[in-house]
Amino acid sequence: MIKIIRKELILFFVCIFLLIIVNYDYLDSKTQDFFNDSQEKRVIVTRVIDGDTIIYGKGDNETRVRLLGINSAEKGEKYYQQAKDFLNNSVFNKSVKLVYEEEKFDRYGRELVYIIYRNKNINLEMVRKGFANYYFPTGKNNYYGDFLNAWKKCVDENVNLCKNSNNLCSDCIFLEETDKFEQKIVLVNNCGFDCNLTKWSIKDEGRKKFIFPDFVLKSGDNVNLIIGNKSNNENTFYWNEYDYVWTYSGDTLFLRDSGGRLVLWKIIN
Known about the structure:
By secondary structure, the protein is α+β, with helices and mostly antiparallel strands. It has two domains: 40-161, CATH 2.40.50.90; 164-268, Lamin Tail domain (Immunoglobulin-like, Sandwich). The chain is 26% helix and 33% strand. The chain has four helices and 18 strands. The chain has helices at residues 2-39, 80-91, 122-128, 144-157; strands at residues 40-50, 53-56, 63-67, 70-71, 95-105, 111-117, 120-121, 133-134, 173-179, 184-189, 195-196, 201-203, 209-211, 216-217, 222-227, 236-239, 251-256, 262-268. The protein has a five-stranded mixed beta barrel with strand order 1-2-3-6-5. Strands 9-10-15-16 form a four-stranded mixed sheet, with no helix packed on it. A four-stranded antiparallel sheet has the order 13-12-17-18, with no helix packed on it. Strand 6 and strand 7 (120-121) form a beta hairpin. Helix 3 (122-128) packs parallel to helix 4 (144-157). The longest helix is centred in the first third of the chain and has 38 residues, at 2-39.
């Protein structure tokens, strides 16, 4: 009888011990899952909005996501559709990993993420393939160098957004001055002939963009581009619609010809 009781007690304590182990592993995994969920998670992409925005979930559970580190063309702009198609082919209806930075949401309530699929950073691929420029509006982080190098590689390969201008004046126009504190840009024409800059554009890393009206920059002259509400004159233009363009934490200027090809790009520190 005593032996039976001892066996039952041993069995009881073994069961308790096993239960504790199982629960510990379960709780530990749940804790780990929660921690990982605060940094990254896996989802199915249910829709691609454009070259830098996706959705996961359906119906009331839809979540809109903005890709970190990049900015792609707006609807109606060159390479908009190509960027959207590339992202769609890369992630639509696929299980991807979303990796978050410390700041998880933008001002529109969209999640801010890097998308990883089959160990590739899709955001980085978008820049490398010339479907987006790099974009760090709140300052450089640990990934900035990777995205900058991806852009440089794209420029070297001369593809899509990185295609170099073949305009005769592309070798003439240079940045003479950049001042992010004064929000001022000065371009100079170093060629021995006049350059028609009509419909040439200047853009920052984000959405801010200036398109030259009918304008010819004479040989040896320069043109000023300034933030303000004054009237344009012969060699000075004002970005009236913006309070600022060049962010104090650092920005990049992209100058393109009337066909959208890259004339020059310059980091403004």
